[in-house]
Amino acid sequence: MKKKFIVCVLLVFLFGCGTFPTAERHKEQALNFVVMGDNRPANVFRPEQPYIYHKVVEKAVELEPVLILNTGDIVLGYDAYSQEKAREEFDDFEKATAPIRKKNIPLYITMGNHSGYTELAWEAFAERYKNKETGTLYYSVDVKNCHFIVLCSELENEASQITGKQLEWLKGDLKRAEGKFIFVMLHRPLYPKIKHLKDSMNKYPEKRDELASLFKQYNVDMVFVGHVHVYNFSVVDGLSQIIAGGSGAPLAGTLEDGAFNHFFNVIVNGDNIDYRLLPLQNEVKQAAHMMEEGRVQGALSLAEKAVETFPDHPMPHIIATVGYKSVGLTLEYNAEITKLLSILGSEEEVFFRLGEFCLTVKLLDLSNFYLSKALAIKNDSFKVWYHYAQLKTEQKQYPAALEMYKKALPLTNDDHFKQDIKEQIAKIGKLI
What we know:
The chain is α/β, with parallel strands linked by helices. The chain folds into two domains: 4-279, 4-Layer Sandwich (Purple Acid Phosphatase, chain A, domain 2); 283-431, Alpha Horseshoe (Serine Threonine Protein Phosphatase 5, Tetratricopeptide repeat). It is built from 15 helices and 13 strands. The strands form two sheets. Strands 1-2-13-12-3-4-5 form a seven-stranded mixed β-sheet, with no helix packed on it. A six-stranded mixed β-sheet has the order 6-7-8-9-11-10. It is globular, with a radius of gyration of 23 Å.
């Protein structure tokens, strides 16, 4: 078995890990590849790809990698109850991913659990991203002296496990790859951290251990996974795993847990593998945090920087609009409203998104202002009544919150929201 020397460096906001095998490998020209993942939108009310994913894509393309691996969860998925909605979600992902496509950089994506929440989302993912030669969601790719294996932890009736035909294929594929550097990618971790401790590959510990033994038998160099929205590097009984889940979905845990936006650049040079963890500043997330703290000028500065970076993403404009409103810059405020209208398409959506953002950063009076404007335009909007009810709950105006939840309930067919509203009505009923 190969021996490895692992180096981990912590420098301010930069974590880096390098792996240097001592065993001799085929001497070939250096190559680099990128690993990213878990870039899905936060929720159904912010349906576009996150701002930070656009930044990840931009920075990744600049590295000119030979290929890019995405560890999954590229769309929200659980609201894809029609073919049109499923298509829209993947179309939006592809729109944000366009710089990769324009450079003709091969992009390999493993299915995440969010693409399997509904049958239509599962089918839409499979149609677009299954291997064209094999027709399967698991396959392998060779580049020079490197072998890349894409597995699927979301197959029907086989979630959180690699078994059946996929396992038999994997055994043969690993045998054929002997002598190469071997990198494996799947969505759910073998060894989860922070979250998803019961629905990762350890849900079936015997099958997980069988898979791990197989990887160790064939000297797999690294297993890349997602599912948990953090960075984490671990070695368990000689098997190395990197969780690279920080490309846009809501982060889990604390900074010390690895909760920061990032992606990986891996450089293979001769017998050495250099794993470079690249953290990214998320101006939108930081600006929102500053707005909640009342640091409006700081939030505006970051929002303006984000607007310059990606002019057509709604979130920087939403934060800038709220900032200009807060400090009384009327001309700038009106210009941002106009820009948001061109991005989001309707006044009702503009005012709703402003109200939703203000609610998340505890600007309750402003949230009330914008949500009331949205209701004046469309008074049968589920999302507006739903958030208005949350606002009134935050303000401890419980009778008003109760009435608004009752108005929202018949306006949705989503079982998740129906259940949540019923629970909220029960809670509020005890407070009145």
